[in-house]
């Protein structure tokens, strides 16, 4: 039974009191410095680190670093820049900084391993030990096979771009440190019409069923004394989505600055107001009522409702499948239209960001 939380505290305080960890989905050091708490981890991907590298306020710093590495390939400079920005964030978090392997080669096992090792070398060169970073790897056959190698070398890995239970099982079989199921598809951050604008995301959001199924799958593995990665949910747009995550099994939620600002503004659950895509609560000041995470009979009822139907289609999965074998996970991903499309969209977004940064670095080198 979950105890009722003191409603005089902010929603962020209430979530922390439940044991939910808040991760920062940003490389913005200035924002991290303003927070009245220290996030657990700082995640990143090519789009997030691109924002920091291309930010005009960081222009002199970035140019100085690039010029200090003459003759180095832009891709390798990008990796080092990532580590240097992570070093600046590290004092403002309690846990790990994360970086993502190149999205241009999600099905190339050796390329994934090589880039993860390069990140580890860059982090270590900045004085960041292996227990303070984690490498995000696409949850493909090549990705989970690479994770087995990297975990054996003491490089912790996270299964990212994860949309189904088969991927969650594969990450567990690979011994990955964590997984990041995407609650919203990447395109929902750029187009309001792609965002499920619902009053009760824990039941009505298209990804809620799969999040609950991943939670149940890991509960079943733990009941058999088998290893399970940490569930680190990602890709949230509204504070109502964040409030749904404790019941869906998330141990960490990875949040952009906007939702963090909302959690610091509200002391209760904000009333649903449709059509507020990416608008912050302080902009329209909705009425807030006391919030308590579902528990007891209410939780059982909601679990039953959620499990009855997968709005994204029934993705094939079986805990008995050896997902680390060649091609098995890729076949499961390809057989699920929602995963296939969302994975491709995510990689395309990150490739565009990576290409922009590589061209930016090359321009500095040519100047």
UniProtKB/TrEMBL annotation:
Q: Which GO terms describe its biological process?
A: carbohydrate metabolic process; pentose-phosphate shunt, non-oxidative branch
What UniProt keywords are attached to this protein's entry? Schiff base
SUPFAM superfamilies, per the entry: Aldolase
The Swiss-Prot or TrEMBL record annotates one GO molecular function as:
transaldolase activity
Name of the featured protein:
Transaldolase
Q: Where is the signal peptide?
A: none
Q: Does the keyword Phosphoprotein apply?
A: no
The record's section on InterPro entries has:
Aldolase_TIM (IPR013785), TAL/FSA (IPR001585)
